[in-house]
Design brief:
Elements (H helix, E strand, L loop, with lengths): L7 E3 L5 H11 L4 H6 L3 H17 L5 E6 L4 E6 L8 H4 L6 H4 L3 H13 L7 E8 L8 H16 L3 E5 L5 H5 L4 E7 L6 E7 L3
Parallel strand pairs: 4-5
Antiparallel strand pairs: 1-2, 2-3, 3-4, 5-7, 6-7
This protein binds coenzyme A.
Coenzyme A binds next to β4, α7 and α8.
């Protein structure tokens, strides 16, 4: 069956609300999202708040891409901008109540992930998500396109943490290889740390 090519563009400020909801749906069953927001009943709402905050950083340190029908989004941090500064961390305050019963564990987990972040300059794919009912149609691959092209043009490697083993083959098809697998504290989920050299 032939499918129409996916048209990818930069995210605009007016897209943020809808895209935060798309990403929350896309990551609802994600092991890391469930680890940070364990309550099924409120996870969608808290994840929407979290992704809304991430999307608000548009333009300053990220490249953020979507499709014309807002079927998904790819968020890339530019080299040297993957780590949020102290004043930027404050914006995450609204997400803390959702993590409160396990805040210490969540902070340890975030530190564990950051400790494994590569030091070499790279583009960081911080988030990639397609609306669940639109997956498997080439949207995720198309959303990766502009970031991968930028990396290749600038001779930069790319880095990501995959929270599902089932995504490893998908990323491998786009040139990523697994560097290391880590496990989050307190019997947490595993993360597949993946790296791609420029072409
Ligand atoms: C990972 C994710 C972003 C992929 O998005 P997607 O839109 O489904 O991606 P694609 O459609 O391009 O590719 C997915 C599969 O569909 C296949 N596919 C691509 N185009 C297709 C088409 N036109 N028709 C049918 N299948 C197609 C691809 O071959 C691919 O197979 P693979 O997984 O064996 O490589 C999506 O599954 C997702 O949002 N998952 C939940 C959130 C998540 O895990 N994000 C990544 C965190 S690291």
């Amino acid at each position: 069956m032939l499918t129409a090519p996916v048209s990818v563009r930069d995210v605009r400020p007016e897209d943020r609300r809808a895209l935060a909801a798309v990403l929350a749906r896309s990551f609802y069953d994600d092991p890391v999202t469930s680890y940070f927001y364990p309550r099924d009943r409120t996870r969608l709402r808290h994840a929407r708040t979290f992704f809304g905050i991430r999307l608000r950083q548009l333009g300053r340190q990220q490249q953020v891409h979507t499709t014309d029908d807002l079927a998904g989004a790819a968020l890339w941090a530019l080299p040297g901008r993957w780590h949020e500064e102290g004043h930027e961390v404050i914006q995450y305050l609204p997400t803390i109540p959702a993590m409160l019963p396990r805040l210490g564990m969540a902070l340890r987990a975030m530190r564990h992930i950051e400790d494994h972040h590569p030091a070499e300059p790279h583009l960081y794919l911080s988030i990639l998500g397609t609306d669940p009912d639109q997956q498997g149609r080439g949207i995720g691959s198309a959303l990766l396109g502009p970031g991968l092209r930028l990396a290749d043009e600038d001779g930069l490697p790319c880095y990501l943490e995959s929270s599902k083993e089932s995504n490893v083959a998908f990323y491998a098809r786009h040139g990523f290889t697994v560097r290391e697998v880590i496990t989050l504290p307190n019997d947490g989920p595993s993360l597949w740390l993946m790296w791609r050299e420029p072409r």
